[in-house]
Amino acid sequence: MESFLEDKSSMCKGLSSLPSSCLEKAKGMRVKLSHLADTHHKLRIHDGKAPQDLETLLNNKIGLQVFRGFLRSEFSEENLEFWLACEDYRVSPSHLQKTKGGNIYSQFINPDSPQEVNLDAETREALLCVMDSLCADTFNTAQQRIFHLMAKDSFPRFLRSIQRTDVIKAI
């Protein structure tokens, strides 16, 4: 303990001999590090973990916005848009499901759709067969497949990107 106090005392004496410009830079760094710690705390969720998985990111408003921007920059935003459309569809009143389901099919599922998502033929055919009898969980399987595709493909790239840093800076 005495050794630690001696080291700390000599460190403080050493700091006083530094030019004031260095001390100002050090103070600035301390403020930035403090802000980073606050940001990390704000990103924490109820179970005490920072968002390191796709589901947590999608449930974070700012994280979702930044992830969308990342996907847009890679021209692969359709998977996220499909996933969000399915989330909206699932909670929609039953009288709106036919319209919303048709929109989802024509925008994301149909092979000629403008934002066609990458689904296997079996899932695509199963959806085509049930389009006349829609229910709240019609798109669940397709949505899960796209979620897993994002989790394996685009989300790891996002974690390595500069945009991930933007999530931390934005909060």
Automatic annotation (TrEMBL):
What superkingdom does the record give? Eukaryota
InterPro entries associated with the record: RGS, RGS_sf, RGS_subdomain_2
Any Pfam family the entry gives: RGS
Q: Which SUPFAM superfamilies match?
A: Regulator of G-protein signaling, RGS
Q: Which residues form the RGS domain?
A: 53-168
Protein's name in the database? Regulator of G-protein signaling 5
Q: Which organism is it from?
A: Xyrichtys novacula
